[in-house]
Amino acid sequence: MPTCNETNLSLSTFLLAGIPGHEADGSWFSIPFCSLYLIAILGNCLILFVIKTQRNLHQPMYLFLSMLSVTDLGLAASTLPTMFSVFLLNNREIIIDACLSQLLFIHSFSIMESAVLLAMAFDRFVAIRHPLRYASILTSARIGNIGLAIIIRGVGLHIPAVILLKRLPYCRIRTLSYSYCLHPDVMKMASADIAPNSIYGLFIVLSTLGLDSGLIVLSYIMILKTVLSITTWEQRLTALNTCVSHICATLLFYISLISLSMIHRFKEKTLPESQIFLSYLHFLLPPVLNPIVYSIKTKEIRKQIRKIFHQNNSTMRIR
């Protein structure tokens, strides 16, 4: 591999990509993307507002839901600046430091979301398997410690990855695959041996996303085993119904992630547009749809949202 001199290294800049073959239509693509971002921000902020203002929702299930909304907002905010720059302003340049900062936030929030989904699976397991001990097991202090551990793991694992990328030489301006920076994409832009980066990246994936998904599946196996031991069908359906929203959120996150990983692996056999659109869907759909799913399927959230809008309508009529 060729090496770079210090001048080239200090001036290294990447070019972000739009939609291949549709570069001139960036302003049109910005309309649906901006709409999705707006829905994601408003939806998750509404969920957070409802949980914060309604004291009866200060329970483990809803506290974990608020964590999910925070990670969704963080994930959306991490990709928004460069996507806005590429599609609306047609500005594709990004310096290496800004690129590394963005990928740190994107990957950290992705790992945090996976961990929150695992915590929510554990919450459902405890609620169904040990309902009488639910409040004593998931205390406020324990939930706070879980949240802190999620943040430390998400950020702590990716700081070394960013340091390893920062040490690599980048000889010339190169074009990335997306309108934001991702670790595998930036890693391939280097003009040096990237084996340590690749090994560490694989370690992160296996120790976080791989472990989390396995534990979530195990949790639901135990939940299903417990539900089947319940005598009446009505009680079984009631117990399973409390898991529907979480199952939808988990499938939204992991199906798009697995599909994207498979496309990366076999991308020479796949159209580039499918890879890029699936990447956008992976980072946009969960923040957009999670608030909608929980608003529809969670009775207390739906009830409080209706109450807020009813109060607002009543106030407007009085005025």
Multimerization status: single chain
Overall pLDDT: 86
**Strand-residue fraction?**
under 5%
Major sheet: 3 strands, mixed
Q: Poorly predicted ranges (pLDDT <50, ≥5 residues)?
A: 6-10
Specify Rg, calculated over alpha carbons. Answer: 22 Å
Helix content: over 70%
Briefly say what this structure is.
With 319 residues, this protein is an all-alpha fold. The protein has helices at 6-10, 26-53, 60-87, 96-129, 134-137, 140-166, 183-187, 195-228, 233-241, 244-265, 272-297, 299-318, and strands at 13-15, 93-95, 174-175.
Give the topology, please.
Elements: H1 6-10, E1 13-15, H2 26-53, H3 60-87, E2 93-95, H4 96-129, H5 134-137, H6 140-166, E3 174-175, H7 183-187, H8 195-228, H9 233-241, H10 244-265, H11 272-297, H12 299-318
Parallel strand pairs: 1-3
Antiparallel strand pairs: 1-2
Helix pairs in contact: 2-3, 2-11, 2-12, 3-4, 3-11, 4-6, 4-8, 4-10, 6-8, 10-11, 11-12
What labels would you give this structure?
single chain; 319 residues; three-stranded mixed beta sheet; 12 helices
